[in-house]
Design brief:
Largest sheet of chain B: 5 strands, antiparallel
Shape of chain B: extended
Strand order of the largest sheet of chain A: 14-13-23-22-21-20-19-18-17
Keywords (chain A): ATP-binding, Magnesium, Membrane, Metal-binding, Nucleotide-binding, Translocase, Transmembrane, Transmembrane helix
Number of helices of chain B: 10
Number of domains of chain B: 2
Strand content of chain A: 15-25%
Distance between the termini of chain B: 51 Å
Catalytic activity (chain A): ATP + H2O + phospholipidSide 1 = ADP + phosphate + phospholipidSide 2
Oligomer: heterodimer
Radius of gyration of chain A: 37 Å
Protein name (chain A): Phospholipid-transporting ATPase
Number of strands of chain B: 11
Cofactor (chain A): Mg(2+)
Distance between the termini of chain A: 57 Å
Number of strands of chain A: 29
Largest interface: A-B, 101 and 103 residues
Structural class of chain A: alpha+beta
EC number (chain A): 7.6.2.1
Amino acid sequence: MNVRVGDIIKLENNHFVAADILLLSSSEPYGLCYIETAELDGETNLKVRQALTVTSDLGADVAKLADFNGEVICEPPNNKLDKFTGTLYWRDNKYPLDNEKMLLRGCVLRNTDWCFGMVIFAGLQTKLMQNCGRTKFKRTSIDKLMNTLVLWIFGFLVCMGVILAIGNTIWEQKVGRTFSVYLLWDEPIRNNNVVFSGFLTFWSYIIILNTMVPISLYVSVEVIRLGHSYFINWDRKMYYIQKDTPAEARTTTLNEELGQVEFIFSDKTGTLTQNIMVFNKCSINGKSYGTIMDSTNFSFNPLSDRKFKFHDSSLVEAIKMEEPSVQEFFRLLSLCHTVMPEEKNEGDLVYQAQSPDEGALVTAARNFGFVFRSRTPETVTLYEMGIAVNYQLLAILDFNNVRKRMSVIVRNPAGHIKLYCKGADTIIFDRLDPSNQFAGEGLRTLALAYKDLDENVLEEWMKRLLNASTVIENREEGLADLYEEIETGLMLLGATAVEDKLQEGVPETIACLTLANIKIWVLTGDKLETAMNIGYSCNMLRDDMNEVFIISGHSVSEPELEQVLLETACLCKTVICCRVTPMQKAQVVELVKTNKMAVTLAIGDGANDVSMIKTAHIGVGISGQEGMQAVLASDYSFAQFRYLQRLLLVHGRWSYFRMCNFLFYFFYKNFAFTLVHFWFGFFCGFSAQTVYDQWFITLFNIVYTSLPVLAMGLFDQDVNEANSHRYPSLYRPGQLNLLFNKRQFFLCTLQGMGTSFLLFFIPYGAFCLVVRDDGSHISDQQAFAVIISTSLVIVVSVQIGLDTYYWTAVNHVFVWGSLAVYFAILFAMHSDGLFSILPSHFPFIGTARNCLTQKSVWLVIMLTTVACVMPGLAVRFLKTDLYPTLTDKTITEQVPQTCD
Amino acid sequence: MGKVKANAGPLARRPDNSAFKQQRLPAWSPMLTAQTVLPFFYGMATVCVLLGVWLLVTVQNTHELKVDYTHAGSCDKCFEKRKDRANANQSCNCTVVFNIENTFKGDVFFYYGLINFHQNLRQYMDSRDDGQMIGRNKNLKNPSSYCEPFMKDKNGLPIAPCGAVANSMFNDSFTLVYHSAASRQVVPLFRKGITWYTDKNVKFRNPQVENKTLTLAQVFEGTGQPLYWQKPVYDLDPWDRNNNGFINEDLIVWMREAAFPNFKKLYGVLNRAIEPFTEGLPAGNYSVDISYNFPVEYFQGRKEVVLSTVSWFGGQNNFLPIAYLVTGCLILLLAVILTAVWWKFAL
């Protein structure tokens, strides 16, 4: 309601945030406020936002708020949900603003009674709106081919028009002029202007033959794709019962491309693995824990999490012995994070963590007696072995993908200032002794380090930090440099290993997809060793393999090496790219996409996979642990990697097969239907006289022949699903684009032309001189129209019957129903009643009755049908008999599926 | 797309386990195996050949005789006369003679045929008003603009029937004469019952007037006759009052436009009630007296008279039996090739 930039508005609990607003004050202490961002990024954990201390003092005092006259200078509207930079100028001071002080439109206020905020962006400028409709429009190769073919058909149409127009010119010159005694009105002919007559004829034929370019094709294709999408949504075998997550086709335009995939780019974490982090090893001060198999008793700790398991009781002993390094280790884990605690009942702690490994680490610390209990923006409260300890939080040095580490600077009750840092081991080890102890075991390793800070150094650094964080341009870089500066000279405390278990069925799925000749590349941000271990455990790497290509993200940068990279990678059976950034993932996909002319599929679960998912032809999101961004950007989503096999080998294969058969038949049908006019042109002086009744032309595509082909496009199955899984090579024709391509189009054009030729000339031969059995003639144009249209409908119905592999009840109803509807409408259109109401619109009165009661008519229809269908049948039989494809072999071997 | 269902519970979003949604509908999957395809081909071939033979035999028992009279016999002078449009109103009669060697048994049909006359041109076919011919008074006086330029005559009167089709109606008339040894006898022809029932009774009606006592001429008052006609529409059949106006059968036959430029149209049916025609047309010498009115020289057309008997599948039609025989043989050939290939490769 007329929310404008600069307005100060009040929000209440559980309300949607109406605009992008700067939080000024809230009902909670310290100006805190909690929001849920599910609508924005799909993450359901609560997030905290905090107002500037100066503004939170305004409280709920409307008068003060009304007097608020701060000025905000900020970045222009953009679509980055997790970034905001701006500065507030108020009372001669300037205050840095970042994302932590913003409530974005689309969030929901939670656990906060009220809050006040100033509108920064409203309407279309909000980040939510900026994110709308920015996704690239994906099209399938069949779509592109279809557009090309439609253009070709237009060209063909023009050729036909030109041929017929030339024919008309010649005819008018030779015959039409002499006939003009009966066609007095023809001005151009009277003036001997036959060329102008030809010109008019050209346009007349363009109109008559336009049914070659069927509008209903596009509609039908969309309907079929929609149906296929529903079949994916409905598939119980892609439904994950533990999470109550069905598969979801989020677009309806890409289905048939699922049957043509050649390259799969897979993320590792959360995609191949479960992304459920288990803290199962650690190394403190050079001593490893977690390698012995016994269970640990946490009964000493009333605040422990019962579900937590750790297999080494010596660590508990160590903590009970109060070893300082062990204590410091867990203190770091419980301090250095961004987890939000929620304590509904006393002692019943729930952690809201943005990333699962962070949650695992904090939970581990909790069980070992360093319980993270609560946090305010300036303090963190721990229960260290049952005793409450308050730490003053001086600074948080955030985690991001470049830094790959985070730090906190805290002051403990004794007044000592410490910097705690945890981060990817290579990053930390760059500054410390190299130690690679856990990497060999396929675990995610984080190194922990700390540093004592001097009060003065910190004070000076904090000033610079404040300065840097109020800069608008290049704030990120400035901050990163500052962080870098203070995170040096760290002391190693130890390392943690968090295990990420492989998802169910991943090795089998990968093996099966490899058999289907799909190349799987793993692109991961993880380090080489972890990636290789996952490679081994999911069967992508074996010791006997010698065509393996493993590349690290640091190596890829030079554009001229891209080709070399691509060629090398394509020579190898297995490709693993590690240490790649999200942007590099997208670049790799783009590289393959543009150079190999192959269909690519990217599958991932996290925000770091979004760019790759958007770049690939098909993006698949795993609806798993790490939020929803990947799913929101994806075209298909499901809960488990192993469903990919079914999505491609069953749904994709069927979709492709159905779409190709559909297109083949559809083009055939329209050529057979339309080209009859062309042949008739040679007999009617190229005068653009139509062969059929105008009603038949209108209804042929939308009523008489639309449903059977739609049923085929929706339900047909050449090979059943069990065999699709059993013989992955059945997937090959799709990759090679064999079922519908320009050659196939040429063939169906040829078939359509042949059919139209027979459709026209057999009745012509039979009827140009025939009479009824009562002597009266039926060689008139109307009778001819009825005979040809009836033959046509029967021929195309028989043809769809032959093209259908899988006759369900629906197919039967549609095929027989269409024939019945044809005859019903035919007789209705030719009935006395309609004619007496509108004589000029239903001039075919009685033709159906007079024709279809004649035996000779049925003899002709039968002959036409046989002649049109038999050659195609023979060719099909020869092909399956002489050069049977794997599909043909499988079809002949498979037993009819039983319905259970 | 992911529809959230109303039913709650831990498995709320689980898809239904219906055969339709799981794509497990029971289905029949026909397969192209040698065991089905080859017998089908042989069967089809047999059916086609047998039908072809049967049709051929049937056709052998029908008779057809065509006499081109464009400028045959004494019609030559009429042909010359009709070359000049100025002579349009002068009548011209001529005679052609021919001989029937074998008796035409059964019903005999008398057709006139036109060669190279395009009744199938789009503008020609459109140039008619079915609303007028069904007897609508509104259309009678105000015919459809499709009839242009045959809509109004030079006096501005609406033409009935309007349009190019009616205007170009074939207007030769024929008298078939049988020359037996003893005498010269006119062959009796039914000139009615030569149209489709629906045409005669539904599609073509004379204008309805409330005053039943009006003559047809009065009903058509205020309309002009088509430009090329010699007599008005209510006067087409001088012998039968009920065969006039839009329901004149020759007009109806003409108005059913032929699909191809060479066509024949029914003129009459032999009346077999009278001797010696009870069995059909006896062998012997015949002549046709022709009132030669229809000009064909402008478009290099030909005119002919056709006498024919019919079988159960229509008139003498050699195309259908031959087409069946050819198709049957081709299928047989295909079947043999398929069998050979199957024998050699698949076994």
